[in-house]
Amino acid sequence: MRTGAISVEIDLTITGLSNVKSGHLIYDTINHTLNTLMPKRKKPIYIDVEIALDEDMGIAKGLVNEEDDDSFFMSLTQSLQDDDEELIRTVCHECVHIKQYLRKEIRDITIDTKRWKKELFDLRTTDYRDLPWEQEAHMLEWAISNKIIKAHT
Fold first, then answer.
1. 3-class secondary structure, 55
2. In CATH, what class is 10-148?
3. pLDDT at 97
4. For the residues of 91-128, what is the DSSP string, one character each?
5. Which secondary structure element, helix H or strand E, spans residue 63, and what is its range?
6. How far apart are CA 101 and CA 108, in angstroms?
7. Cβ proximity of 52 and 75 under 8 Å
8. CB neighbours of 95 closer than 8 A, spacing ≥ 6?
9. How distant, in Å, are the alpha carbons of 44, 48, 90, 104, 122 from that of 114?
10. Cα 106 from chain centroid?
11. pLDDT tens digits, residue range 115-138?
12. Distance (Å, rounded) from C-alpha 25 to C-alpha 112?
C-alpha cells in the first residue's frame, strides 16, 4: 500500500477487530509512524496485527515480534479498541520497535537476552524502565502520536 508520492511500502493484515474505526486508526498510525521513522526505506515491511484477548496479553497493551528480516507480528489488547488515543500511542510504540529491528539496533539473542546496539541486556535482571529500546520507544511514541491524535480528533 502506498500513501503519497514517496512512502514506505507496508503490507498490513489485521485480524480480530471488533470495529472498523480501530482498523482505520491502526492502519493510519502504522503508515504515519513508519513513514516518519524510516522515510527512505525502499523494501516492503510485512506486518500481521492481531487483536488479542486482554487476559492473553498479561500487563502488556502491545507486543511486537520480528518473524523474519522484514516481517513482524504485532499483538494489541482488545480493550485498546475502546480508547482511540491509547490505541494510537500503543501502535506508535510498537512501530518504534519495528524500526529498531529493521535498523538492527536491537536483536533477540535468547528469550531472556537482547542486544541493544553492542550491549547485552538480561531481561530477568534489568528493570523495564532501564531498557534503552523502551526508553526510545516511549519518547518517540509521544512525539509521533500527538500529531496523529490531532489529525483524528
1. helix
2. alpha beta
3. 98
4. HHHHHHHHHHHHTTSEEE-SSSEEEETTEEEETTTS-G
5. strand 62-68
6. 9
7. yes
8. 29, 30, 33, 34, 37
9. 25, 22, 21, 12, 7
10. 14
11. 999 999 999 999 999 999 999 999
12. 32
- Alpha carbons 76 and 106: distance in angstroms, whole number: 21
Tens digits of residue pLDDT in 26-49:
999 999 999 999 999 999 999 999
Q: Give the torsion sign (CA, 80, 142, 74, 19).
A: positive
The three three-digit cell numbers of residue 118, written as one number? 553492542
Interior/surface letters 93-131, b for 16+ CB within 10 angstroms, e for the rest: bbbbbbbbbbeeebeeeeeeebebeeeebeeeeeeeeeb
Q: Where are the domains of the chain?
A: 10-148
Task: Quote the CA–CA distance of 75 and 65 in Å, as a whole number.
Answer: 9
Q: Which amino acid is at 140?
A: L
Euclidean distance between CA atoms 65 and 107, whole angstroms: 11
